[in-house]
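Lecture notes, unit on protein representations.

Consider one protein chain, 320 amino acids long.
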Amino acid sequence: MKRMCFSFCVFFFLVNLAATQEKYAVIPENPRPGEPVTICAVGGVRKAALISGGKQLSASALFFTVPPADGKPGFLAAVLTVPSTAAPGDAVIRLENETGVVHEIPLTITEREFVSETIELDVVLTGIRTEPDPQKTAEADKLWAILNRKGTVIYHDGSFKMPVTSTRRTSFFGDRRIYKYSTGRSDTSIHSGVDFGVPTGTKVNACGSGRVVLSVMRIVTGNTVVIEHLPGIYSLYYHMDKLEVKEGAFVDTGELLGFSGATGLATGPHLHWEVRINGEYADPDAFAARPILDKNAVLSKIGYYLPMRKGGDYFGAYYD
């Protein structure tokens, strides 16, 4: 009788503890401009948006299901990015379902400085960047449509690996660029990825497991590969000399995609590596620094790390 009473008290305590736990988690809570933010919930949400100063900063992210694995329960997750142009300060993640806003999670965007660089383009490269071309427009529209697809499959949930072994970089994410054209005019842009200064013929490997959704020669980006890793999350590889994968293929982390080069709008041999979240540019280094879905961190925040009963289910686990 005493044992039954004690067990009931423990169960009642754990259920009440779970009720006081947050049903939502944001990782990290203090992101820098350009960095991804993972939002997790136990249910009752459909999409997340980053809001600051009353304005939405980036495209909304749809939640997808992370299934149970390794004795740990599943949850809902969404990933969005803080634009590299975002001002530091207070912001909120606004969670919505079919009926409207259900919750707002505060976070702080921390300050970040970016490098400035000037790039001089010859006549040919000036033409590639500035001259109107229906083929360029068609290629851009096709890529944009791919990057805005919201799938449901999780091919990769860990950290990304670098696509080349070299650590030499010629440009960084978020660089503020000035292009000087051969005509004497100039233009500005923000660099959307990381450039590795590697010689032509260097092996380029997949940064994570996924499905090849594009493998083609393009006017601006040259020989290009795009891989889908998670719903709305893609890695891109530009200016390659030769491609070794076909569209529709499934690749593992570290698998050969092709060889680096200087095709397209390139002033010399290099690999441009880029990551997009719901079409938005994101810092690739942030994906290499931590898992996209850090399940241990997520579950500890939303209250699932509770003692397990015999049979493997959790006391106090709740779903909306």
